[in-house]
Amino acid sequence: MHCMMGKSKELSKDLRNLIVAKHTEGIGYRRIPKLLKVPVSTIGAIIRKWKEHGITINLPRPGAPRKISDRGVRTIIRRVLQQPRTTRGELQKELESAGTVVSKKTISNALNRHGLHARTPRKTPFLKKKHVEARLEFVTQHLDKPMTFWEKILWSDETKIELFGCHKTQHVWRKNGTAHHPQNTTPTVKFGGGSIMAWGCFAACGTGRLHIIEGIMTGEKYRDILDQNLLSSARLLKMKRVDLSARQRSQAHSQGNKKKKIKLLEWPSQSPDLNPIENLWKDLKIRVHRRDPRNLEDLKAVCVDEWAKITPEQRIRLVSPYRRRLEAVITNK
Questions:
Q1: SS3 202
Q2: Helix or strand holding residue 279 (H, E)
Q3: Who wins on pLDDT, 154 or 218?
Q4: What positions does the domain Transposase Tc1-like occupy (predicted)?
Q5: DSSP, residue by residue, 8-74
Q6: pLDDT of residue 4
Q7: What is the per-residue pLDDT for 190?
């Protein structure tokens, strides 16, 4: 004899009403199961529900009780709002000390229900007062520029790409729309060194050249990059306006690039977060390290290969919401 256990099928409303009708007609509990082919325990439950509530349909189920009390939820919300870098393990210990033992997933679910999600902190530059003033002035001058203005800019910069560059990711608990709040960002400062240095440029309409910088960067090398790669990329993409950092501008001026009909965008110092190429570098590094290059020559080849795979959709996605970058500067002062 085989016994099959499983979830019983819910009876239709008509069959439930028929069971109650048979009962009111005086038919006993023993006969109804035989007439309707329904277990006696089910018959009894339906009739009891009808007597108690006057209905035969199932009442809405309240669901499983929350594993963290309302007070416990308020405690962990208050903690992460005050200290966004609090880990789930730390919250777990805090709840355990109060007598509540739950998993990290349960803690995440409780915070998610109240609009708090674990996100990687945005990196923002370390700013002095003069940097803040320059950035606000730049935003004020360019906030009302139409989208077509940003689409015609050739964005450029250099970056360090490490051979083994995947580090442990730190998260912060924050609500949507608060990515650039100071307590949800990680300050950064520029520094030299690294496995390789790469220089690149892109625009909404296309990707410019990627240049792997050999050895130590010198003024002469930088002038060569700007003269050979920046100008050739601008001509190739038919660009008339170029974004340059403060150091790049000084080199460009020394080369007389203005005479070559390349108009420079005045750029505030310490503002890599306003340059969408920084997001492009991040995407590139993720794809490069997925391929697990094992030496520097392999790293260079993979970088060049992945740079060539940048899609039009990626470029447009980085440039089209540019106004939001400017608004974030004003919002966070």
A1: strand
A2: helix 277-290
A3: 154
A4: 74-144
A5: PPPPPHHHHHHHHHHHHTT--TTHHHHHHT--HHHHHHHHHHHHHHS--SPPPP--SPPSS-HHHHH
A6: 40
A7: 46
Contacts of 49 (CB under 8 A, 6+ apart): 55, 56, 59
Q: What is the distance between the terminal CA atoms of the chain, rounded to a whole angstrom?
A: 76
Number of other residues whose CB lies within 10 A of the CB of residue 84: 19
Q: What pTM does this model have?
A: 0.54
pLDDT tens track for 186-210: 655 443 334 788 989 898 888 888 9
Supply 74's token pair.
Answer: 């308020």
pLDDT of residue 2: 41
One-letter amino acid of 192 = G
Q: How far apart are CA 274 and CA 132, in angstroms?
A: 13
Q: Contact 19/31 with Cβ under 8 angstroms?
A: no
Distance in angstroms (rounded) separating the CA atoms of residues 312 and 207: 9
CA angle 142, 145, 150 (to 5 degrees): 95
The upper half-sphere exposure of residue 228, i.e. CA atoms within 13 Å in the direction of its Cβ, equals 9
* Length in residues, the chain: 333
- Pick 76 or 126 by higher pLDDT: 76
Question: What Cα–Cα distance (Å) separates residue 124 from each residue in 81, 103, 271, 272, 329?
Answer: 20, 33, 8, 8, 11
Q: List 159's β-bridge partners, or say none.
A: 198
Identify whether the C-beta of residue 288 lies closer than 8 Å to the C-beta of residue 306: yes
Report the interhelical angle of 322-331 vs 129-142 (nearest 10°): 130
